[in-house]
């Protein structure tokens, strides 16, 4: 009896997905009427991995690079004069002077004019959620 036998071994080994690929696949699951199982099968990934990525998007852990933190200019307020800066000159500033925050406070100025002050012991997850809400 001649026949062909196909051996199905399951999913292949560990693959590396770029953030853009993960976000694209998660976006597919958010279309109306789309089954998560079908999206997972189409991309040959486990459903549990897809659910993990969806949770990470909801929590703000997985997001596009343009939404990630970036360096912003920092301005020192109330700087004491140094040898390189004469006492009669003031530091250059672009924003109006505000009251100096107490020690341990961090002030974050968002592009839309909103300000957030947090202590040095702030929970990073909570701060991430607050900043995401304020950007909207």
From TrEMBL:
Q: Does the keyword Amino-acid biosynthesis apply?
A: no
Question: What InterPro entries is this protein classified in?
Answer: Transposase_8 (IPR002514), Trp_repressor/repl_initiator (IPR010921), WH-like_DNA-bd_sf (IPR036388)
Q: Which UniProt keywords apply?
A: Plasmid
Any one GO MF annotation of this record: transposase activity
Q: Name one Pfam family in it.
A: HTH_Tnp_1
Q: Which GO terms describe its biological process?
A: DNA transposition
**UniProt xrefs under Gene3D superfamilies:** Winged helix-like DNA-binding domain superfamily/Winged helix DNA-binding domain
Regarding protein family, the annotation reads: Belongs to the transposase 8 family.
Record's protein name: Transposase
């Amino acid at each position: 009896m001649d026949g062909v036998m196909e051996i199905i071994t399951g999913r292949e080994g560990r693959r590396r997905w770029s953030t853009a690929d993960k976000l694209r696949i998660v976006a597919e699951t958010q279309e109306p009427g789309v089954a998560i199982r079908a999206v997972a099968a189409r991309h040959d990934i486990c459903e549990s991995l897809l659910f993990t990525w969806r949770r990470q998007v909801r929590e703000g852990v997985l997001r596009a690079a343009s939404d990630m933190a970036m360096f912003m200019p920092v301005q020192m307020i109330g700087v004491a004069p140094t040898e390189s800066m004469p006492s009669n000159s003031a530091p250059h500033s672009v924003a109006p002077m505000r009251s100096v925050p107490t020690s341990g406070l961090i002030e974050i100025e968002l592009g839309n004019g909103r300000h957030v002050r947090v202590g040095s012991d702030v929970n990073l997850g909570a701060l991430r959620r607050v900043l995401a809400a304020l950007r909207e």
